[in-house]
Amino acid sequence: MTERQRRYIATEAMIGATISAVLSVVFVLLMFGRLSHVPVVGPAGLIMDALPQGFAIALMATLVPTWLTRRRLARGAILPTTSAHTTPPAHLLVRGIGMAALGAALTVGLTALMLVVGVDDLELATVLIGKTIWGFILGGTVAALMTRAALARH
């Protein structure tokens, strides 16, 4: 992999991470903005919110960078990598749904760990910080993986 390809992947990862973090803030404020404490369980709880957050972040961090990378490869703006690694399915929607399901499962699982340590609710500020950080990590990681895969698949 060339230095330019590494920078390209890093850039796509940072863009995906930043957008995911910002969207996480927006959705926390929309969902929980009127609460001082957010319950972990229940219809308006963190575990229920983890499902759409993880799904949406992973889906968008798969679809957008993959689509953009395929376009850039097609017009020669970036060169493909030569990789012997196995890549995810070529069909973008299949890849997106698979990664979204994985992102949702991981987000729900990590959120449910709060129950194991005895946390019943969290202050809104803590939720805001935690979901922002998680959105950044999940969005950036998925975007990097999917950009790398798109470069290798071409």
Describe this structure in words.
This protein has one domain (3-153). The chain contains 4 helices and 2 strands. The chain has helices at residues 3-32, 46-74, 92-116, 124-153; strands at 37-39, 121-123. Strands 1-2 form a two-stranded antiparallel ribbon. It is elongated and about 50 Å long.
Q: How many DSSP H or I helices?
A: 4
Order of helices and strands: HEHHEH
- Principal-axis shape equals elongated
Strand arrangement, largest sheet? 1-2
Outline the low-pLDDT stretches: none
Q: Helix proportion of residues, in percent? A: over 70%
- Judged by helices, strands and strand pairing, the structural class is mainly alpha
| Average pLDDT over all residues | 92
Strand content: under 5%
Number of strands: 2
User: What is the number of domains?
Assistant: 1
Give the C-alpha Rg: 17 Å
